[in-house]
Write a structure and sequence with these properties.
- With 83 residues, the protein is mainly α.
- The chain has one domain.
- The protein has three helices and no strands.
- The longest helix has 16 residues.
- The protein is globular.
- The two termini are 24 Å apart.
């Protein structure tokens, strides 16, 4: 989405896996996920949710799947949301 919309709007959002049915292997691989060491400004929880919704929408289209998004965070950044 960062390339699609230009600028650095979603440049700090990283997708760990492609959209797929949740499996035991996917859950086990979460143990190996580490937050990025470098401190970046920008990207927050809401940016991640927008990118996740876009990925889910592109993958599922109009099919009637049970759609879920799991957010995993180290909780270190402040979410920027407006009223």
């Amino acid at each position: 989405m960062a390339k699609q919309y230009g600028g650095d709007q979603y440049a700090n959002v990283t997708s760990y896996r492609a959209v797929e049915k949740l499996s035991l292997d996917a859950l086990r691989s979460l143990e190996n996920v580490q937050p990025e060491i470098k401190v970046t400004k920008g990207g927050d929880l809401m940016d991640g949710m927008i990118v996740a919704l876009d990925m889910l929408s592109r993958h599922c289209g109009t099919r009637k799947y049970k759609k879920r998004i799991f957010v995993i965070s180290d909780g270190e950044k402040e979410a920027k949301v407006s009223d």
